[in-house]
Every structure is written in C-alpha cells, then in structure tokens.
Specification:
alpha/beta, Rossmann fold, 6-stranded mixed β-sheet, 4-stranded antiparallel β-sheet, 8 helices, 24% strand
C-alpha cells in the first residue's frame, strides 16, 4: 500500500530537527523494558478511514477508539472485511486515518510527513508478518541487522543482532539463509528482527498463519516471553486458539469494535500455553526440520 502524498513540495529543502523525532536507546533486557512508565503505547481517538473508489466510498473504520497500555498482550480479531487489516496499517503507521487522532508511545502521527513516519516505524514499531518478509540469499544475522542499518547504527549492529537471534533460540543459525530454514525458524528470525531496535510496540499480522501447530506454539511462546519482559505485543489474527494466548481480545466488525474482553490484567503473566486446536495441526512442515527451543 502506498503512503499518502504530503503537501510538502519535493523540491523543498528539509530543515533539520532540533532533536531526533524518536530518541535512540540501547537494546534493553527485561529490567529496562519493565521499567518503562505505564502509559499507553497505542492511543486511538475516534479514528475513521474512508477509501474513495470513485463513485463508491468504502468506510473501513468508523469512529474507532482504542487504548493499549504498555506491557499488554492483545489480540485483534475480525472476519474478512471487518477492518482489522486497515486498523493494523494505521497502528503500524503504514497508512493514515481519514479522521480522528492516533498517538503511538505519546507521539502524535497525524501531522507527520512520509520521512517522519518511516523514522517512527523503524524506531517505535517491530513488525512481524505472516509471510516472514526476510531478504532472500541473505543470512539470518544480516536480516536482523537491517533495521539497525536503516537507523544509522554501526558499531553495535552485529552484537545486538546476535543477541536478538539468541533470545529466540536461533543462535546456532546465524549464517543460514531463509531457504535453509523451516517456516518456524524463519518466523523466529523475523521476530528477532522486530525486537532488535527495542521498539515500544511489536505488531504481528497473522504471525502463525503459515505455520504448523508445533511452530505456532514455539512462536507464541516467544511472544509470551517478550511480553513477560514488559514488551507490548499486538497480534492481528483470525484464529481463536491464538487469541486465547493473550490477555485481551478485541473483536472488530464493519469497522467498529463490537467486543473488548479483558482476560488477564496488564501486569499479569501471559496465559499458560496449551495445544493448538485449529487447522495448524493439519499443515505440513515447511522447509527443514524445526530446531528445538
């Protein structure tokens, strides 16, 4: 999806900011993540999104408000056409709302230009996608280093990437390319890439959609461990058994929140893992055999 054009002329010289849009911090362990002040990472006020298709206008989101606290583990669910993909794009700063206001970790995105949005995405949001989106013919280590390279970090890149891969059980696969990894292993690398910048938010779009039951459980355990460290994790999913592994479930229909169920308090540990009951168990393994956690 293309980001909307801003009014700023391309020929205009960009004035340097007096300070960085998002301050850089070194990678943090559990103690630093847990010490963040308790404030909403996601604060959405009356957001609407209308797609103009010529003679037809599609209202994908309607006056939607949502607040997600630091350290929460949330599932956003909905059938096709419910608006969950549109909401995911807005939460991830991949698109902008037609109306309303969105703050991520205290930063208002409504007046940002494309460069600022890209800066914010790189430093505030860690993305995990269903299709992994790893760079082919590139090692796991280099894939995880990429967000740090985009942020201009040099000296600590390798060390931080190695630490992120070790945290998801992939220390023994640093130099393997995506084609040499199973689906579950590729998703672990994708999670490592998402957390290497120490983002305020981990946003996962159908992260288990291409995985079998064993790999699904492994990946959900990683998300639970990250949340246990104090990280905020939002899963976009259509699978009830995946949603059951979260502390809060938000359901969308026709662009509106129709159900918001708090299963556990924000400060509680994530739910105990149980066996996956969905169609995951019928999927074949992709690629090589799974590495043991």
């Amino acid at each position: 999806m293309h980001l909307p054009r801003r009014a700023r002329a391309e020929s205009r010289v960009r004035v340097p900011r007096p300070r960085t849009l998002v301050e850089r911090h070194p990678a943090a362990g559990p103690s630093r993540a847990a010490s963040r002040p308790r404030r909403p990472v996601i604060d959405v006020h009356g957001v609407s999104k209308i797609f103009d298709l010529g003679q037809i206008k599609v209202r994908a989101l309607q006056n939607l408000s949502l607040r997600i606290e630091t350290g929460d583990l949330v599932a956003i669910m909905g059938s096709s056409g419910s608006g969950k993909s549109t909401l995911m794009n807005i939460l991830g700063c991949l698109d902008v709302p037609t109306g309303g206001r969105y703050l991520i970790d205290g930063v208002d995105v409504s007046e940002m230009d494309e460069d600022d949005l890209a800066d914010l995405r790189n430093r505030k949001i860690g993305f995990v996608f269903q299709s992994f989106n790893l760079v082919p013919r590139t090692s796991a280590l280099v894939n995880v280093e990429l967000p740090l390279a985009y942020a201009g970090l040099r000296g600590e890149r390798r060390r931080r990437a190695e630490r992120a891969l070790a945290s998801v059980g992939m220390a023994h696969r640093l130099n393997h390319q995506p084609s040499e990894l199973s689906g579950g292993q590729q998703q672990r690398v994708a999670v490592a890439r998402a957390i290497v910048t120490n983002p305020a938010l981990i946003l996962a779009d159908e992260p288990t959609g291409n995985l079998d039951s064993h790999a699904t459980e492994d990946v959900l355990k990683i998300f639970a461990a990250l949340n246990q460290e104090g990280r905020t994790v939002v899963l976009i999913t259509h699978e009830p058994d995946v949603a059951e592994q979260t502390k809060r479930v938000v359901r969308l229909s026709d662009g509106e929140i129709v159900e918001d169920t708090r299963r556990l308090a924000v400060e509680d540990p994530p739910p105990a893992m149980h066996s996956m009951k969905s169609a995951h168990g019928q999927r074949a393994h992709v690629g090589a055999a799974e590495a043991q956690p």
